[in-house]
Amino acid sequence: MIFLTVGTQFPFDRLVKTVDDLVAGGVIEEEVFSQVGDDAYEPRSFKSVASLDKKAFDECIHNASAIISHAGMGTITMALDTGKPLLVMPRRKRYGEVVNDHQVAIAHKFEQLGHLLVAYEPEELADKVKLLKGFKPSPRLVRPEAVVKRIAEFLDGLPAGSAS
Amino acid sequence: MVRVMGSDLRIALVASSGGHLSQLLKLSDAWQGRDVFYVVTTDVVKKKLGADKRVYVAGECNRQHPLRVVRSFWRCFEAIRRERPAVVLSTGAAIGCLCCFIGRLFGAKVVWVDSITNVEHMSLSGRMVRHIANLCIVQWPDLAQVYPGAEYMGNII
Questions:
Q1: What is the pLDDT of residues A78-117, one digit of tens each?
Q2: Is B107 in contact with A147 (Cβ distance < 8 A)?
Q3: Contact residues on chain A for B3, CB-CB shorter than 8 A
């Protein structure tokens, strides 16, 4: 199963429609299941729900052979944590899908690091989807400990019980 | 005065859904054992955090939806007014910005952690909040060079 998710904040019809066309046209043969958000385009070629609770969402990620999503950091993190191949299409400011183009920047950065595949435009999706199954994401090494330590030290330095 | 460490330093933890929340939760060890409450955007997130947590729901908002910003502002204001945290800590986005400024009005210290997705600039929220932040953390080394006072110490996600 390919899991298609665009977050729950705002719809991302441009991506869902494109995947719908690819499934209808036989380019994607595998079963697709999607979380598309409220008031969103409803795909005709595969099942979709507006939103999933945490448990159901985790199950979808777990059961997926691959994930297609917007370039939201929540989904990217889950894909990297579970080692699932991920193809993202960034939301764009010019289509009113997001307030700025940060998704383009993070998609580009993570593409360079080998963490994920990117289709910057719908036209690239068909070719990138073919690469998805064989894609092995490079694991991401991070050190939240350094930031945790800095914040803990900052909090330790404050007098307790005062709000000024 | 003898300083008592730990639980009586109340902290507001503020994050929008998705990556902002994931990044906040990765930092949980920093406030282990302290008196914390959350301000989040949706009931889905509230449920996800668990029934044992004190959680306020401010609603989704961004600057494309001014009316939602007004609604979220009042919900954030109510949460901060009621709880009077000593610290407001946020990973963004808009509701984090609101809570930091509101918290500051009530005398709270402000900690801002800019999301990793801000590669080329700090977020708009971050660029506003950094002026009132007591601790401002970015996740790309270049940004620490560009914004005075911003600190870089690695990625959290």
A1: 999 999 999 999 999 999 998 889 999 999 999 999 999 9
A2: no
A3: 159-160
Low-confidence residues of chain A, pLDDT below 50?
164
Residue B54 located in a structural domain: yes
User: Is B127 within a domain?
Assistant: yes
What range does the domain containing B57 cover? Answer: 11-152
**Measured between alpha carbons, how far is B38 from A78 in angstroms, rounded to an integer?**
22
Give the total residue count for chain A. Answer: 164
The residue type at B18: G
Cis peptide before A126 (omega within 30 of 0): no
In chain B, how many domains are there?
Answer: 1
| Cβ separation A72–B29 shorter than 8 A | no
CATH assignment of A2-138? 3.40.50.2000
Q: Residue B83 is part of a domain; what is its CATH number?
A: 3.40.50.2000
CA of B118, closest CA in chain A: separation in Å? 6
- What whole-number percentage of chain A has pLDDT above 70? 98
Ordered by start, the domain boundaries in chain A are 2-138
Report pLDDT digits (tens) over B110-145: 999 999 999 999 999 999 999 999 999 999 999 999
Buried residues in A118-137 as b, exposed as e (16+ CB within 10 A)? bbbeeeebeebbeebeeeeb
- Any chain B CB within 8 A of the CB of A55? no
What pLDDT was estimated at residue B8? Answer: 78
- Do B8 and A96 make contact, defined as CB atoms within 8 angstroms? no
Q: Model ipTM?
A: 0.94
